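ok here's Ribosome maturation factor RimP, seq below lol
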Amino acid sequence: MAKFDRHQIQQLLAEAIGDTELFVVGLTVSDSVLPKITVTLDGPTGLGIDEIATITRRLNRAMEATYGEEAAYSLEVTSPGADQPLTDPRQYARHVGRSLHLKLQDGTEKTGPLVNVLPEGLEITEVVKVKTKKTTLPAVVIPFGDIKEAKVVISFK
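and the structure came out like this:
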């Protein structure tokens, strides 16, 4: 049974992605009887089913060439779900104008529309609720290092 090396898979994945604008958000390799390799990709405009299929085929071919055709594993190439946190600064740009919920390293939380993505962090206009009244505060820049978790607020208006 083949032992899958995470670093080698990362290299194969980088080659499979090639010069596309896609980037890796997550890579897990389970250590079970039938190892499961889960790749989470994203891009500046999201990720389409055709792109997922192409990367899956490329990575499968590279895995077979590296580990042999008899290597048994399960491969899942996916995009982050709408409820998944944003983990890479490159993920924010397409969410400008949408509301984010941020959990900060100091334990505080902020929610409000993303105004801009800067090299050093996010510019948001925080919306504060006091009883039933909402107040929008002036835009502030929150450094990426201060963000523990960021999620897009899903609204069904």
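fwiw The domain at 89-152 is CATH 2.30.30.100 (SH3 type barrels.). kinda neat tbh
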